[in-house]
Amino acid sequence: MASKSQPSAPKIGNPGSITNGKAEPQGQWGRAWEVDWFSLASVIFLLLFAPLIVYYFIMACDQYSCSLTTPALNIITGRVSFADIWAKTPPMTMKAVQIYTLWVTFQVLLYMLLPDFCHKFVPRYVGGVQEGAVTPAGVVNKYQVNGLQAWLITHLLWFANSRFLFWFSPTIIFDNWIPLLWCANILGYAVSTFVMIKGYLFPTNAKDCKFTGNFFYNYMMGIEFNPRIGKWFDFKLFFNGRPGIVAWTLINLSFAAKQQELYGQVTNSMVLVNVLQAIYVLDFFWNETWYLKTIDICHDHFGWYLGWGDCVWLPFLYTLQGLYLVYHPVQLSTPYAMGILGLGLLGYYIFRITNHQKDLFRRTDGRCLIWGQKPKAIECSYTSADGQKHHSKLLVSGFWGVARHFNYTGDLMGSLAYCLACGGSHLLPYFYIIYMAILLIHRCLRDEHRCASKYGRDWARYTAAVPYRLLPGIF
Fold this sequence. Notes:
Pfam families: ERG4_ERG24 (PF01222). Keywords: Cholesterol biosynthesis, Cholesterol metabolism, Endoplasmic reticulum, Lipid biosynthesis, Lipid metabolism, Membrane, NADP, Oxidoreductase, Steroid biosynthesis, Steroid metabolism, Sterol biosynthesis, Sterol metabolism, Transmembrane, Transmembrane helix. The chain is mainly α. The protein is 58% helix and 7% strand. The chain has one domain. The two termini are 20 Å apart.
């Protein structure tokens, strides 16, 4: 499904792309070289308000039973002040610091010290040492792909503790949720600040850095393309996948354990949220090698947008459905639950098969079958900044003939299923589908702006062949 994107970054011109393993011109790669007033205003807005948004959602559940409107109305009408709400907010505790430090350290050790062995015995899984896409400086980084292994080891230990070891309560994450939020914020800001200083003083590759002259933009969008320590510790890959996404399913399990503790049962809605989101998480790690060629790795620089976003935005807002169900347990009727499960699985199927079709087409250079037929494609050409002419193909068969971003359609179907599992009493669990719709529509428009500039008339031919972005006949 959609890569674990954080608050939607401002539109920043016309980033390049990877085609046939060749680097696009440096000036069109990734984030902007110069900052217009709108981008700067967007950056400052996100830096100021994104942390407050996360706090507001978590606080609303803790103090107002997940009502988003009550705290705002109470503040506006003067019934309470923000100081009153803040005074009731649990502070950071030494226990939370110990839990979070142990968690991050454990994930670093799994990432750095345990080479992947899953690919040696799991059929069709691609792991171990893999190459990423070529960077603007012409570097091809190597990665130790072992996310699936880290997820499996972490969860085996979690279940072993729950059944046999009893080192800690399965509700430990929920019981320390807000103190853990403060710890995650500290790590997010520390990492973001470190990589900015590193970009100025000791970058991994100076040719893969971008400077705008504006502190706020550099801090948020990042300076270095692939900041690294040593040969293997890649900040972008580690923080995009670990610790946030490995934690996602553990957080949901802790919420389920808390529901069991409070009410004596785990509702079918909580089971649905755990199962459907676990499918997404496992899909991410199963396809981690494929992820090395996605926009997050191939175009985004590493700054606050990814550093803080992966530490805070992702684990604390992508798990709102499970958190909500702790405060409002929902037992769905069997037909309704089966309908939600069907929607989620259908969305995942569309998402996965759509991406598989494009990957198959690229790997075989079109010498394959899609839906039992030879695939059709629009032949494209473009000229890079060095004057060289390149050729590419845009697939118009299979799901890619239904809509230009039909993988996002499947992603949105899955996202909607998570939210529908929570019933219709509160707005809070529906934040995810609202956010994902805005994010993916913005990404559609950003990608198409880049492609229109890159391919020109050939892109017009492609959009004529596939006229809709997400929903045939509508958009």
